[in-house]
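Fold this sequence, please.
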Amino acid sequence: NGTDDSGKPVSSGIYFAKLKNGNQQISRKLLLLK
């Protein structure tokens, strides 16, 4: 939704998401355009 954990808007740009589940881990690059 374009906001951070505290509800403040974030800038357009490239972000990285890391998901962990037990001993599995994946990373993805995300592009946010406004």
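Residues 1-34 form one domain. Residues 9 and 17 are 17 Å apart (CA to CA).
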